[in-house]
Write a structure and sequence with these properties.
Blueprint: H1 4-7, H2 11-25, E1 27-37, E2 40-48, H3 56-60, E3 69-76, E4 79-89, H4 94-130, H5 137-151, E5 157-163, E6 168-175, E7 186-187, H6 198-205, E8 209-212, H7 213-223, E9 234-241, E10 247-255, H8 264-334, H9 338-350, E11 357-364, E12 369-376, H10 392-399, E13 403-405, E14 426-434, E15 437-446, H11 455-511, H12 521-537, E16 543-550, H13 553-560, H14 562-579, E17 585-590, E18 593-599, H15 604-617, E19 622-624, E20 627-629, E21 633-639, H16 648-664, E22 669-672, H17 675-696, E23 701-710, E24 716-727, E25 731-733, H18 735-745, H19 748-769, E26 777-781, H20 792-803, E27 810-814, H21 816-821, H22 823-836, E28 839-845, H23 851-857, E29 862-865, H24 867-871, H25 877-893, E30 896-899, H26 905-914, E31 918-919, E32 928-929, H27 935-948
Parallel strand pairs: 21-22, 24-26, 26-27, 27-28, 28-29, 29-30, 30-31
Antiparallel strand pairs: 1-2, 1-4, 3-4, 5-6, 5-10, 6-7, 8-9, 9-10, 11-12, 11-15, 13-14, 14-15, 16-18, 16-21, 17-18, 19-20, 23-24, 23-31, 23-32, 24-25
The structure holds ligand C2E and calcium ion (2 copies).
Length: about 950
Amino acid sequence: MMSTAEYLETPEQAAGRALAMLQQTGGLSAAAVWIREGVVWRQLAGSGAAAGLPAADALDKGRLPGPDGGALELTAAGQRLGWLVWRGRAPETVADIAALLAGHLYCAALRDEQAAARVANETMLEISLLAGEGDGLERILPRLHKLMSRLMDASNFYIALYDEECATLRFPFYVDRHDPAPPASDSVFPVNGANSSLTAWLIRGGKPMVLTRERILEICRQHGLAQPLLSASFWMGAPLVNAAGNLIGAVVLQLYDEQTPFSSAEQLLFMFAARHVGFALDRVLYRSQLERQVWLRTSELEGANARLRAEVSGRKRAEKFQDVLFRIAELSNTSLSLEAFLSGLHRLLSEMVAARNCLVALYDTVNDCIAFPYCADEHAQSLQPRKPGKGYIEQVLHSGRPLLIDPYGGDAGAGDADDGAIRPKSWLGVPLYCGHELLGVLAVQSYESDVVYNFRDQEVLEFVANNIGAALARVRALESLQLAYAELEQRVRERTSELDAVNAQLEFDSLHDPLTKLPNRSYLSKALRRAWDAYLAGNGDRFAVVFIDLDRFKLVNDTLGHLAGDHLLFEAGARIRACLRHYDFLARLGGDEFAVLMFGMDAVDECETIARRIVSEFERPVILAGREVFSTASVGVVLADREHYRKAEDLLRDADHAMYCTKQQGRQGYTLFSHQLRIDQADQLALESELRRALEEEGQLIPYYQPFIDAGNGKLSGFEALVRWQHPQRGLISPALFLPMAEESGLITRLDRYMVNAACAQLQAWRADGQVGEDIALHINLSSANFHDPDLAGWIGGRIAHYQLPPAMLHLEITESALIDQPDTAATTMQALHGLGVRLALDDFGTGYSALSYLHRYRFDVLKIDQSFVFDLDRKEESAAIVRAILALARALDLDVVAEGVETASQLAMLREMGCAKLQGFYFAAPAPAWGLDWARLARFEQEMRDAA
Ligand code: C2E
Ligand code: CA
Ligand code: CA
């Protein structure tokens, strides 16, 4: 199909025809037609000596051809298109012909413009479509260049893309006639004075630029840009912008020909095209970025997937190993013989490795010999033990490492297959260890060429081997154990009958006390429970529980020795037994404690009768080591009672408590547990917490002072501090009522310190008032519990210093019990106290058994004769004899003596006559608080004594 343009005359044809018409009708010697194309002129047609005619630019300046010629300007639609110029005589129609030609030329120009516009349009469309074709940048850019070349001279053309993040330019497409190498990537905002390119300058400006060489050089100079090596004559660049208006790069055209600058139409078209290129490239870039992301993500996922798969298979493998491990453990526990264990193991192994042929070799170190407790082989019989040779098994044994032979060398020494037998193709053996001991070898072999062992199989085999070493040892041990068992069973049978006899004895022993042969505590518990259950059920008697404790048993034991103690216990058991009926149950609970279940007791008075009998049984002395010893008993009784008890053990507990009450009331006697006691028990607890509080407050615990009088001259010679408790509700309480509780609860040490402190303070006050001189002694009682305290002497030393007392004024009173309880600590503590310079007094002297031995062992300064001797001094010759003996002893040992409990004038007279140095007792004064001391009365004794004398 022909285009419309082909019908129509070209401008040249039209001009040629117009000149021919003028030639026909007139006498022209030369003629020419000029047309303006852009800024230049072109001769469209010429006839005759056209070269002699003035050119179009001359015509423009008004130079006409002269009188024998003429020129007409070709205009149409007000546009100046060109010139018609001639020489000679022109026909009259020349103006018409010129108008016609102008019309033609105008038409042709319009036609060209239209064609160019169509090309431009089509090109823009194609540029737009480029992005949609899915090609990469490297394919699209050359095509883009081609399309640009359709529109204008694009022989020097490049595209720069802007990476906003790094602020750099790269040049994915670059053609230049004079400079074939594209620039390296370029920084848009160079730092440290580096020069940037013109393109970067364009990007920074964000506006299109059309520049001449001069302008380029000027800009480079002005703005410090890099001078191009060979600057183009003309430079035209436009920023590339995406649909969102963001800068993505630049497109640049350059011309080196000085004559042809960019026409305004070209400039317009370029800017227009740049817009399309921008959109198109943006889409391509976006797509490739997207593709890249998808690719990245995909490969990430693939990586993760591969890892997961590896993990899963690793876990499966681990699970399998774990499972095998369990089964090996199970096998070793359930297999009755080594043979069974090894064949089970072979089955297990076959699940993981091609192990049709498997053998276990064990090395016997004692006989230097290899045995084969297991051998399963397609082509070999069971193997006989042999001496070590040069085989693979020996190699493994020797190196202690796995050995993988592939292909099998067929070493004759291997011994795994006898000569002439079929050789295996592949062999794998691993050492068997138990701990660090090499036991033997586990090996598999294959006769098929498609079964070839590798390192993975070795790993499995090693794993199994590692885990059967111990099991193997166990199974082997089990086997020998079984033999031993059989032998043992026989011996056990023999022994059983012997044991039966011993057991009977043991059973008796377990329920009886070896010393007295009486039932022991656990037997009593059983009997008590049985009696209680029967009583509750209504088919048993009501019964009583009696608790008996020997008074001062410890003293006997410590002073007369254990043999004497044992004798006393034996005697005590017999005495108690003598008080009971044959069906009563007597037990020794341990130490010096006995208990009795008395059956058929319906009332308290029946119990009382027996309790009294027991107590009186102990009033007779026991002869121990040739000495008469009085060991009294404290008894507690409780009657079984459905109303108050839930458990049998509670009866024993209350009987114990009743016994304890007896002790508190001065021992030797009995107490029937009663409702009142139960209340008292609670009362004791309340009292304890009240004492605790009293120790923290001032004014509840009050030291009373009882004076000592010098028996010679009646002068005051000292005081003993005795505690009283001024209880806010209960009134004044004597120490007898709360000291046992204080001892029991451990509060006694705090109480003693309280008293030491208070007494020292009082002494300081008396001294300050001039009430007493330095010859006065202040006695303070110390419980034996204090001897547990290594700090005691230090603390007392501190008090003495604090109150600035002469240490010798202080006398600490100690009873024998402190010395019995802790003889060693007592010695150290007493030494430390002596070191301070304080004095020590032995209290209640004469009541113990071994006071004499203490006097030798420890250093005392004062003896206090117990009041029980003073009490019947004037009535009982025995007491007088004891006091006389004590006084003689004291004189011999150079000790001071105080007689306690002097109540009457006759006691006073006797003691004076006997030569007792100091006297204490109600006769002179009862203990009184410091403010209640009658100093005047104390002073009078001096006179009285003198009078008496
Ligand atoms: P003790 O050390 O033998 O004290 C002498 C006891 O005999 C005192 O009883 C005293 O009041 C009493 N007494 C004094 N003269 C006579 C008398 O002529 N006739 C009679 N029948 N008794 C007399 P108290 O004060 O009731 O103290 C009893 C026991 O409590 C003391 O016996 C002592 O062992 C202990 N005690 C008192 N105060 C303390 C103290 O602060 N600490 C310690 N650990 N024990 C103390
Ligand atoms: Ca005392
Ligand atoms: Ca005393």
